[in-house]
From TrEMBL:
It comes from Durio zibethinus (Durian). The lineage of its organism: Eukaryota, Viridiplantae, Streptophyta, Embryophyta, Tracheophyta. This is Protein transport protein SEC16B homolog. It holds the Pfam family TPR_Sec16. It comes from the Eukaryota. PANTHER family: RGPR-RELATED, SECRETORY 16, ISOFORM I. InterPro entries: Sec16_Sec23-bd. Keywords: Endoplasmic reticulum, ER-Golgi transport, Transport. GO terms for cellular component: endoplasmic reticulum exit site; ER to Golgi transport vesicle membrane. The keyword Endoplasmic reticulum applies.
Length: 88
């Protein structure tokens, strides 16, 4: 986790925000990933929120559909999906 955080930091210092976001997502650093995504735009935020919900929250958790509802805005069928990985 520390190595991933350092890599995210290095990417940010060199101005590579999208790559830093991808690194944070792959390393499951959801706090930094959500902050970066919010700075990059709505679609990045939606995609990151969806990935976080699918990877971090177990199916059946009341928080999972809430996060997916926030993320998928207008695509409620995905809220009830039992998938464990994001399609992005």
């Amino acid at each position: 986790m520390q190595a991933t955080a350092s890599e995210v930091q290095s990417l940010l210092v060199s101005g590579r925000k999208k790559e830093a976001l991808q690194c944070a997502q792959e390393g499951r650093l959801w706090g930094p990933a959500l902050v970066l995504a919010s700075q990059l735009g709505d679609q990045f935020y939606v995609d990151t929120m969806k990935q976080m919900a699918l990877h971090q929250l177990v199916a059946g958790s009341p928080l999972r559909p809430l996060c997916l509802l926030i993320a998928v805005a207008g695509q409620p069928a995905e809220v009830f999906s039992s998938g464990t990985t994001a399609d992005t």
